[in-house]
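pinned: reference chain
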Amino acid sequence: MPDLVLDTHACVYALVAPARLGKAARRALADVEAGRATAWIPAAVVAELVLLRELGRVDIGLPELRTALEHAPSLRFLALDLRQLDEFAAHTAIRDPFDRLIASACRAVDGRLVTKDDSLRRSGLVRTVWN
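pinned: its structure tokens
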């Protein structure tokens, strides 16, 4: 099974509201919880999560994410690297910088993106998991 990469909303839902995940996303993340798959949380997701918490739009932030990473060995942080930035530079059709960084992270690890974002799902740049 290819690795998973979590989009920001998928990360939030996985941590605090799993019922809001799509059916296929829940199944894929159950494999992560069971240790049968790896899910990556890109640096861009972490940065966006911090900003969303500062704005009061989500209740979780870096401390909760760090705790989740420490307690789930199949959930891993994906640092931003030059390979991802090469992908970022190549895919100018994605205008939102966070979406572009997240898609670039997914392409860099050849994973499947857990997202309900229609523009990312329709982009054809990444394989996605949701419904």
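why pinned: The mean pLDDT is 96. The two ends are 17 Å apart (CA to CA).
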